[in-house]
């Protein structure tokens, strides 16, 4: 894979504990981030804590609560082995072997596997679009300016293409910009405008990429198309929410009416 930053999110440099001699703020923030992410899916767990880099009594208790949840020894200490359990969802999303045999099915399989692992952003130091999932999609970048919907899409396309020993950058440049991908699609003749799609839905295929158009050369949001039926596309998209925002908080599966929305479609066919 070309987008391999996620591997850095799976390790800590040393064991972290309250008042530990080898504590460092970066590793403690990673731990606190995963504790808080766990609490989003398990609100009863008592693992939500500040992401401030200080391994104090609150973080120690949150670790113990996590260890209790997972049937681990409740000592409040995070070794690499404990951290492996904390970040297991991220590892599964990126490292689980894909089983499909063609690119379109691989794209959908990879997207669905990420969805099952609950990618979610955090607010850290007052900055949205933060945390290990965002950094994994955005090659180490995070914070409020880093809208991550295209980072998510390219991570999925990269993962699927890599399973076939293909380079996704032969399809599009590595970027975080919907505009860059949209313009690339126009230049290559593989972006279909919404006006054509409304007349012929057969132009849309599962595994393709949708781009929401604000104007002819300005696109504001993107995601993976998983199915097409009766004027509706089902999608898996990052940095969205239940309202379909382009700056939401999670990876979600959505339905979108392409007959009423300005949705252009970028075809992955040249890489198939």
Short description:
Helices cover 36% and strands 18% of the residues. It is α+β, with helices and mostly antiparallel strands.
Order of helices and strands: HHHHHEEHHHEHEEEEE
Helix content: 25-40%
CATH superfamily of the largest domain: endopeptidase domain like (from Nostoc punctiforme)
Q: What does the overall shape look like?
A: elongated
CATH architecture of the largest domain: Alpha-Beta Complex
CATH class division of the largest domain: Alpha Beta
Question: Which structural class do you get from the secondary structure elements?
Answer: alpha+beta
Rg, nearest Å:
20 Å
- CATH topology type of the largest domain: endopeptidase fold (from Nostoc punctiforme)
Largest sheet: 6 strands, antiparallel
Widest β-sheet, arrangement of strands: 3-8-4-5-6-7
- In total, how many domains does the architecture comprise? 2
H/I helix tally: 9
The number of strands is 8
Outline the low-pLDDT stretches: none
Write down the overall mean pLDDT.
97
The amount of beta strand, in percent, is: 15-25%
